[in-house]
Amino acid sequence: MRLRTAVAAAFGALSLLVTVPTSASAATGDFSYEFVGLDGSPQPATLHDPVSPGCITLPEVANPGSSEPAFAPHNDTDTWVMVFTEPNCTGDSWTLRPHGHPATDRLKLRSVFLTDRH
After folding, report:
1. Are the beta carbons of 110 and 86 closer than 8 angstroms?
2. 90 Cβ contact list (under 8 Å, min separation 6)
3. Helix, strand, coil proportions of the chain in percent (round to 5)?
4. Is the previous residue joined to 59 through a cis bond, with omega within 30 degrees of 0?
5. Distance in angstroms (rounded) separating the CA atoms of residues 70 and 107
6. Using CA atoms, how far apart are residues 70 and 109, in angstroms rounded to an integer?
7. Which residues pair with 86 in a beta bridge?
8. 3-22 b/e with 16+ CB inside 10 Å = b?
9. With contact defined as beta carbons under 8 Å apart, do 92 and 85 qualify?
10. DSSP structure class, residue 90
11. Global pTM value
């Protein structure tokens, strides 16, 4: 009887270890950009250690019908980033290298995809 209980307990512990989800990884560093605020002036925004890999629609510019795209992205993370002209990582895209220089104000974006490539 004790052997069955011990085996059942061991099996239960093992199944908990196997089914516990692992935490998502994150890019290390900051991804920053600017957007036009409600007063019409440029506003800075930064994603600190964003989850990767994955797509992030920038909340300040998520609705093309009511906002201008963000601009001047700067990838200071340790992963490659693709920036997209439309929400949900759609539209035209450009790739920014890890720890690169800030892009020009002419580069417009509404979403970013952080890769798992370092």
Report:
1. yes
2. 84, 111
3. 20, 40, 40
4. no
5. 8
6. 5
7. 90
8. eeeeeeeeeeeeeeeeeeee
9. yes
10. E
11. 0.77
Read off the tokens for 31.
Answer: 């991804």
**Sole residue written with tokens 């002036």:** 41
**DSSP state at residue 51:** B
On whether the CB atoms of residues 71 and 109 are closer than 8 A, the answer is yes
Mean pLDDT confidence for 92-105: 96
Q: How confident is the model at residue 2 (pLDDT cuts 50, 70, 90)?
A: low
3-state secondary structure of 89: helix
- Lowest mean pLDDT segment, chosen from 7-16, 76-85, 88-97: 7-16
In the three-class reduction of DSSP (H, G, I as helix; E, B as strand; rest coil), residue 61 is classed as: helix
Per the model's pLDDT, the better-predicted residue between 14 and 38 turns out to be: 38
Lookup result for tokens 């980033």: 81
Q: Which two tokens stand for residue 19?
A: 């089914």
Model confidence over 43-87: pLDDT tens digits?
999 999 999 999 999 999 999 999 999 999 999 999 999 999 999
